[in-house]
Write a sequence for this structure.
């Protein structure tokens, strides 16, 4: 089973919600808060909804506001993938 | 009482995506009405529209914002950028709670709504964008302008169909008088999707002509409905004193008067109230009918509604008593965008001393005893202009703009 990577996340972010001119998504943003990258909870919801189509994971809406950084989101999704495997 | 002056204009019109291109095309009689490009129109009874055919929002709107917003808001974001630049004002240098935004909207982000509802229908709810929740609704444009430019004062939206652009200007003036320095006002509209156009068909007010030069002919004996248009305008209005304080480079004119009325129920014994709206706006401005140099008509293009408007104008000014024009024959009916665009045109008319033409209109229909400026622009000193707007469902609004001394 393929785990979700940071590259997967940034690819989906670019495709779904776009990138602020002042933000470098190709840097190591694992521990940068989504809000500092310019993404509010609605943007993260949009990204998660696209990720769920690619990876067999499910992120409850009420959980989304707890996932404040890319690392937390990736870890949450991958934990689900492992649990399902 | 504070005087509201216009210090910046931002135009997005089918026949010009900046103020000067729009204005020179209007004076040259160049129309933006053409065959609908945006969707497969031959399958629909409506064939023509005033579209912004060459506008690519991705070239002008940051990608983050692009996905959150619909076409109507893309147009407003660009128009607002132009208006702020034209006013040569840096809003970040002004107290943010003294900056407001009032826009009008009538059709919402209908193309986004249609796209996402199609996904819901064909693919399921998990495929509907989360941004559906914020992109389509009437207040989206005001909200996005407020966020983008940090205008944290009074913000609102007015929804009164084609009267809306004028109502936004009138409401913006009221807000300005309540401890505000600067307010963005106006409206933009884009209903160029099958759902957006089809929703208007039941009124039987849409033109089904496929000849761009004969499809939208207000006051003409051949009038057979209106052509839909998209676009609009955003204006910067400021308190005259604070505009002077900051050294605003241009003052296009003053928003001297405004009024709105609502028609009684159709079929009753009371008449419609456009005339009252116009009279109240003139009284608000403190001007007599004889002071008015030009009337910008709502110009529905529907015979009965044209006669009603001509009757209102004639009741105030007398038969052929004032030059009347409707340059929207070159843009189509733009709903909430129309009043804002007409107000811009009126201000440019004041600036340059010329009344733009109502293209394509020939012989006036019986009962339309108005001095309609046709074919070519008419040179005339213009100091005071009356702009009329009617919204489907009974809305009537009027704005008086005046040259500043």
């Amino acid at each position: 089973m393929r785990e979700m990577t940071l590259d997967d996340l940034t690819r989906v972010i670019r495709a779904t919600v776009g990138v602020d001119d002042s933000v470098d998504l190709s840097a190591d943003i694992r521990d940068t808060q989504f809000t500092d990258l310019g993404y509010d909870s609605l943007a993260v919801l949009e990204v998660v909804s696209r990720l769920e189509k690619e990876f067999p994971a499910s992120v409850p809406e009420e959980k989304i506001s707890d996932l404040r950084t890319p690392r937390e989101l990736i870890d949450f999704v991958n934990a689900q993938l492992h649990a399902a495997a | 009482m504070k005087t509201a002056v216009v210090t910046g204009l931002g135009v997005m019109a089918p026949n010009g995506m900046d103020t000067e291109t729009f204005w020179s095309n209007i004076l040259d009689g160049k129309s933006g009405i053409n065959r609908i490009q945006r969707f497969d129109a031959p399958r629909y009874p409506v064939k023509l529209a005033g579209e912004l055919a060459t506008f690519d929002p991705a070239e002008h709107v940051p990608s983050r914002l692009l996905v959150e917003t619909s076409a109507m808001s893309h147009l407003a974001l660009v128009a607002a950028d132009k208006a702020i630049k034209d006013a040569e004002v840096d809003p970040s240098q002004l107290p943010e709670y003294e900056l407001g935004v009032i826009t009008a909207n009538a059709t919402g982000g209908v193309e986004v709504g249609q796209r996402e509802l199609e996904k819901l229908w064909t693919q399921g709810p998990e495929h509907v964008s989360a941004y559906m929740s914020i992109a389509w609704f009437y207040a989206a444009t005001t909200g996005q302008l407020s966020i983008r430019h940090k205008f944290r004062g009074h913000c609102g939206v007015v929804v009164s169909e084609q009267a809306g652009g004028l109502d936004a200007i009138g409401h913006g003036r009221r807000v300005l008088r309540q401890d505000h320095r600067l307010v963005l006002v106006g409206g933009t509209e884009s209903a160029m999707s099958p759902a957006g156009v089809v929703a208007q068909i039941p009124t039987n007010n849409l033109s089904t002509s496929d000849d761009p030069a004969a499809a939208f002919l207000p006051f003409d004996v051949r009038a057979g409905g209106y052509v839909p248009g998209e676009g609009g305008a955003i204006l910067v209005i400021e308190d005259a004193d604070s505009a002077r304080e900051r050294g605003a480079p241009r003052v296009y004119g003053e928003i001297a008067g405004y009024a709105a009325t609502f028609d009684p129920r159709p079929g009753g014994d009371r008449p419609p109230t456009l005339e009252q709206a116009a009279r109240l706006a003139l009284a608000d401005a403190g001007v007599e009918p004889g002071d008015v140099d030009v009337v910008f008509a709502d110009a529905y293009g529907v015979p009965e509604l044209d006669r009603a408007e001509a009757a209102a104008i004639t009741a105030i000014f007398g038969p052929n008593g004032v030059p009347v024009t409707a340059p929207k024959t070159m843009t189509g009916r733009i709903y909430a965008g129309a009043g804002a665009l007409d107000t811009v045109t009126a201000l440019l008319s004041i600036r340059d001393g010329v009344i733009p033409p109502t293209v394509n209109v020939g012989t006036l229909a019986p009962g339309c005893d108005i001095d309609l400026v046709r074919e070519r622009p008419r040179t005339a000193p213009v100091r005071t202009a009356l702009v009329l707007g009617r919204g489907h469902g009974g809305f009537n609004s009027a704005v008086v703009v005046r040259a500043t001394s």
